[in-house]
Amino acid sequence: DAGITQSPRHKVTETGTPVTLRCHQTENHRYMYWYRQDPGHGLRLIHYSYGVKDTDKGEVSDGYSVSRSKTEDFLLTLESATSSQTSVYFCAISGTDYEQYFGPGTRLTVT
Amino acid sequence: GENVEQHPSTLSVQEGDSAVIKCTYSDSASNYFPWYKQELGKRPQLIIDIRSNVGEKKDQRIAVTLNKTAKHFSLHITETQPEDSAVYFCAATTGNQFYFGTGTSLTVIP
Q1: Between A and B, how many residue pairs show a Cβ–Cβ distance under 8 A?
Q2: A4 falls in which pLDDT band (50, 70, 90)?
Q3: d(Cα A58, Cα A61) in Å, to the nearest integer?
């Protein structure tokens, strides 16, 4: 597996609380992505980054924000978690060859 | 934006038979088409990809074909084995955003 880690791997939180998920890479790849995976929907892009401090929205960005202050770290924040944000979150990285590799995932439950 | 459709959503085959999964895309600017295999509880793993300047690519028992005119690409698995059982996703990209199909659950029956 490519050098991608995610933390935490599991989290249970209450509705209305802020949550931050971290993605860390050791590959020095330019692009980093956050996806959510839900049954019947496949993988849906939340936000992505194409460089330090350069980010853009994906198809399901409402309720999420991101930050990338270093090449190796990409943070996903749920400002005020809702039950609809219960999901499995995957970080991914890709380089100039487009090949995209996924992290191990974070299972988030919002009660 | 791009729209990727994937069929079938479920597929059962006998061990040793072939399996074919098809995807269509809408954006003619898409130029890279990866396929991922995801086992239960695991991360998606890149298994094969094809770029728009190539019509077919093969890697042992798996192959991918691309028809740019019709905007569709397919994954072919030959001599299927029980360990091929998983969910398979196709995707398309112009280089920044990746758009995924909704997945095909493949079951290989021993």
Answers
A1: 48
A2: very high
A3: 6
Nearest Cα of chain A lies from the Cα of B9 at a distance, in angstroms, of 9
Asked whether residue B57 carries a pLDDT value surpassing 70, the answer given is yes
Q: What is the pLDDT of residues A23-61, one digit of tens each?
A: 999 999 999 999 999 987 889 999 999 999 999 999 899
The shortest C-alpha distance from A90 to chain B (Å) reads 8
Which residues are registered as beta bridge partners of A53? none
Q: Which residue of A has its CA nearest to B93?
A: A98
